[in-house]
Known about the structure:
single chain, alpha/beta, Aspartate Aminotransferase, domain 1, Aspartate Aminotransferase, domain 2, seven-stranded mixed beta sheet, three-stranded antiparallel beta sheet, 14 strands, binds pyridoxal-5'-phosphate
Amino acid sequence: PDRAAIAYFGAGPSALPTDVLEAAAASLVNHGDSGLSLVEQSHRSALSSRILQDARDSFLKLIHASADTHTVLFMAGGGTLQFSAVVYNLFTAWAVKHPELAREGQRGSCEYLVTGGWAAKRLVGAENVNVALDAREVSYASGEARKFGDIPAAGHWQGNLKPARDSAFVYFCDNETVDGVEWPKGSPVDLLGDDPDRIIVADMSSNILSRTFDASKFGVVFAGAQKNIGSTGVTIVLLRNDILALLSSGGALPPQLTPPIPVTPVMMHYPTIANASSLYNTLPIFDVYIASLTLARLLGRDGTGATALELQEAESDEKARKLYAVLDDHPALFHVVPARGVRSRMNICFRLIAPGDETLFVKGAEAKGLLGLKGHRSVGGVRISNYNAVTPESVDRLVEYMREYAKGI
Ligand code: PLP
């Protein structure tokens, strides 16, 4: 079928704007009339540096941050590499900052706010360095099946969470792609307070650039590009410069530590990647190019007094509102999995109640060119991914199908 007839709601890799793909396709054959494909060009060429710079500048502009305060890294390895990278780097930063504690053999600690499967998976990262770091977990799973789907009110979770005074970092996943749980805007950062010593880390893989956020409050933000930014292959890491400075001053580490500080593997070592302007090794520049096209396109939305990201946020909210409205209009047929206050605007997860049938629902949608709706294999159900490239028109088509389906039951 023609691409225009398809509306794609896959969770990632996800839809990309057609004009971005067309520009990328042209560059795949002959980039900028150079006679060479972009994938044939050296990652160290001036052309590649320009692409990296453009992507970095657009990203910083979109989030209203500056190179004076933040460093943007483009890395391979996906969000998954960052699960480990943040632990290695931030534990080192902790040891540099607290040499007396490290020398005494005290273990550093870090806290994870676990609201779904992706925050839980980070343990894979934390366990690697567990010899030296006490990774504590505040889990929001509830019920006998220990399912995710809610974030209790502030007072409750604050009571659970007591970050140690010298905690290395507090980590959360801003949007849980599989469970459909998103932290309400501004939290938990606002609730953690304005302690300049507290380093907050957020995995924004599946909701970055869908709403504004205050970059100054975060120590590290990371996001694989393949949902809201571009294609699979690069991850954007936003790092506050004071943390980078701390990491770069590794000479201050005390010589004898028990337990020893784990040495950060070079491909995860933020100062190494930063010093090389993200070109320590061969970076997939073509993927950075796709990201730069998407970022420039998003920036181009600027106008009418609102910033580009505010416009995108309003659109994302409105698309999500329409989708939840149709679900809520038919409570006997559709059951939204997460609690109302934490429903994700990006991944709308629901079950069909008999006589509704999830397989038939998804098949019927496919027949109309509405693709990518099957829920994640670990939880089942239906999932509508409402990323930036999903147009309001695509959402309207899906809403119409859902209303028709409900009528037919
Ligand atoms: N974090 C979140 C929220 C995700 O949705 C995903 C993947 O879908 C990941 C991390 C892992 O990302 P990657 O597959 O790029 O390693």
